[in-house]
Design a protein that fits this description.
The structure is a homodimer. Helix content of chain A is about 70%, strand content about 0%. Chain A has nine helices and no strands. The radius of gyration of chain A is 18 Å and the shape is elongated.
């Protein structure tokens, strides 16, 4: 599923979005989320605070928008020639990213500035889209493959649940074991 | 796992906790979370704002504390005489509570005012404790039973992932299907 940009790419609106997103990322890197304000972001992005309020509502919604953009996969999953290998590699990388301090912070941002659940739904759609590519490749190779919903429940959900709720060490072996328990 | 109270039950400290928690719940019921402030909560609870700040830090942490208390199960899961029946009933009720508007709001509160992950961990510990009771009963009946971690990954995680990330209708049949796919 292609991401639907809120704006024409290349227009003034896209430039504003890019400079505000960049400003948020720079300020968070420099000084963390604590104490971040819309006027600080606006000053760094060289726009007025009202531009930010008009477009994003408040700081939480802006942080959520930045988070969803950061959680967007950069490329389709690599083709390793077999579903198990594709899923192993993808699940390991997904867990590694999501369980990192930056990943955890982005997930929380995406969830918290999200009155209508749209951002969280977008995060989930990214993962579903990646799985779908791998499952369709498997079908083309005539490999037996589970359904998309089953793969979401059995591979993505446990990893995300642990990242959010269970402060346990999350290893590549854990990611691989979920894949192995899913496949025949 | 018994909840560890932050204070001696029955002391002044416990009375303050109870009246502040009650004040939060009343105010949220009456007017929602938007615009809620610590001074408003303190006034309703007849304590000073500094009492609240000293004990809870800020509004987010207070909301998280109230949420975790609300998510605490009130009783051990019912004994239906067979693991499948126990898990069906428990999963249906768990999903029903978590997917309700109040449940979703409490989960978000618990996650967002949670700098160290302690509240989210407590929510997860509640679910794990309930599953453990059912799995131990199954062992006493000599029923075959999965491990606790597998049950968390296969039943609790998919429900919580969908509640948080996937705006799809969540039915009792879905909860039961997760149990059926877990059991032999």
């Amino acid at each position: 599923m292609p991401v639907t940009p809120a704006t024409r790419p290349g227009g003034r609106s896209a430039r504003v979005q890019r400079s505000v997103h960049d400003a948020v990322r720079e300020l968070v890197d420099e000084r963390g989320r604590e104490g971040l304000t819309v006027p600080m972001v606006a000053a760094r992005a060289s726009v007025t605070p009202s531009t930010v309020y008009r477009r994003w509502g408040d700081l939480h919604e802006l942080l959520a928008d930045v988070a969803v953009e950061r959680l967007r996969p950069e490329a389709p999953p690599k083709d390793h020639g077999a579903l198990r290998d594709d899923l192993h590699a993808w699940a390991e990388q997904f867990l590694d990213e999501m369980a990192s301090p930056a990943g955890r912070a982005y997930i929380r941002d995406a969830l918290s500035g999200d009155p209508d659940g749209r951002n969280a739904g977008q995060c989930s759609a990214y993962a579903a889209q990646q799985l779908k590519v791998m499952l369709e490749r498997a079908a083309e190779r005539d490999e037996p493959a589970p359904g998309l919903e089953e793969a979401m429940d059995r591979v993505v959900a446990p990893m995300m649940y642990r990242v959010l709720f269970r402060p346990s060490p999350l290893t590549a072996e854990y990611a691989r074991s979920l894949v192995d328990s899913l496949l025949p």
